[in-house]
Amino acid sequence: MSAQDWIPNAFELLTRTKVLHRNYEATCRRLAAASLAIMKGELIVLVGPSRVGKTRCVRDALCIPEPNVPDQRSRMRVVVVEAGNDSTSGEFSTKAFMIECLRALHHPVYGVPDDDDPWQERLQARLRRTPEGTLRSAFQSGHELRETEYLVIDEAHHVGYTPGGDAAAARILDSYKCLANRTNLKLVLTGSYQLLRLLTLAPHLLGRQHPLEFPRYHGDVRSDVIAWQQILQTFSRCLRFENGQSLCSWNGYLFDGALGCVGQLLRWLRVALARSQSEGGISISRDLLEQTRLPAAQEVAILGEILAGEQQLVQANMPVSGRMPASLQDSDEAKPRASKPTRKQRNGKPFQRHSKRNTVGGRV
C-alpha cells in the first residue's frame, strides 16, 4: 500500500472496527433490564459524557431496527426523536420538537411528504399553518395507531435551551410525563450530565425515573485500565507507526486527552489522520497527537461537566431531613416501640368490686 493510500484505508478500518467496550456491554444489559422493569408512564434516564455511545447503546438495548420505519402492519414499537435547539437564536422550540416527533413517527399527514412533493414545500407550509396543539394531538393519536411502546428522546438536555429558562424547561419535562401517561408510553431520555439538573426542576418526574449512567473509563480502576489497553491495541492495527510503536506507547497521554471516553479517542484519531493526510504524513506519531489534542480550556470545560455529573450520581450517605441516620438504621434505638397504655394497678380478686364507703354527710 502506498503512502498516499494508507490514510483513507485507516479511516475505513476505524469506522468498521468494533471494540469490546466493557462499559458499553454492561450499560446495554442494565438498560435492557430497566426497559422491562419500568411501567407505562415511567421513564429511564441515561446520562454520560459526550460521544461515549449512549445513542447506540439505546438502539442495541431496545433492538431498534435500522432504519426505524413502520412494519408491514404499520406498527412502530420504538419511536426515536432528537431534541434539538434548532429554533431562532439556537433555542429549543416545542413546536419544532413536535414536528420532529411526527417525522419520527412517520405520520401520514404531518410527517411524510406526498409523492409529488419531493422538496417538501407543501408539507412545510402545512406544518407552519397547523397549531402546535393540533400537532400534539396528532402525535398522541399516532402512537395509539402505531402501537408504540417506547418513546426515546435523544439529547434531552437541549430542553434547557428553551426560552423562559428553568421554569419553562420544567414545564416541558412535565409535559413529557403527561404525554407518557395519556398514551401509555415508556419514556427513555438520554443526554449529557446536564440532564440530571434539569430533572430536579420537575419533581413529579423524579419519582417515576430509573436513572442509569454510561460511565467513562477511570484511571484508578484496574479493570478499566486493562480494558483501555485492549482498546488501544485494537485501534493500533488500523494505523501506521514507526520504530515499533503503537497507541499503547502513549497509553496515559491518550487516556488523559480522551478523558477516558472511547468516542473522544476515535474523534482524536480521525483528526490526527486528517492532519497527517494534509501534510503528507506516513505514520502516527506523538507529535501529531499533541498537535491535534483539544485546547486546554475546552478539555477542562468538558472534564468539569463530567466530574460534576459523576458527583451528582453518588448517593449521599449524610443524614438529611426525613431520612434516618445510617448509624441508627440497624440499632435497637431505630426500631419503633409500641406504646403501652398505662393502667391503674388493681388489687384483689377479679370480678369482685371493693365498695368505697362515703363519709357521713358526704352525699349531696
Description:
The protein is of the alpha/beta class and 364 residues long. It has 2 domains: 6-17 and 219-312, no CATH class; 22-213, P-loop containing nucleotide triphosphate hydrolases (Rossmann fold), CATH 3.40.50.300. Helix content is 45%, strand content 7%. The chain has 14 helices and 5 strands. The chain has helices at 6-16, 22-37, 54-61, 94-105, 121-129, 132-146, 165-183, 194-199, 203-206, 222-236, 251-258, 262-278, 286-291, 296-312; strands at 43-47, 78-82, 150-154, 186-191, 209-213. The protein starts with 5 loop residues before the first helix and ends in a 52-residue tail after the last helix.
Mean pLDDT over the residues: 87
Low-confidence region ranges: 316-325
Tally of distinct domains: 2
CATH architecture of the largest domain: 3-Layer(aba) Sandwich
CATH hierarchy class name of the largest domain:
Alpha Beta
Strand order of the largest sheet: 2-3-4-1-5
